[in-house]
């Protein structure tokens, strides 16, 4: 389960970066909104899976609330999931 969460964390982080630094600039600077819908949908699905898996692991691994909150908040900060992967998910 932890290895799968690591993969989802990586993909979620990449999708957030693509959304913020590729799709959104394409929409607002080049009037090309097509990428926002596809990258945004992928990011949304990955975000939900990330949070659900974090909650399952929170109960399974008996993380403290502070760790769980940090892991969940990292999903909305660019590069946050990569920090989580390095700091909390080394055992996978």
TrEMBL record:
Topological relation to the membrane, as annotated: Multi-pass membrane protein
Keywords, ordered alphabetically: Cell membrane, Membrane, Transmembrane, Transmembrane helix
Protein's UniProt keywords contain Phosphoprotein: no
GO cellular component annotations of the record: plasma membrane
Localization: Cell membrane
Pfam families referenced in this protein's UniProt entry, alphabetically: DUF3817
InterPro entries: DUF3817_TM
Every DUF3817 domain range: 2-88
ATP-binding keyword on record: no
Record protein name field: Integral membrane protein
The species this protein was found in: Myroides guanonis
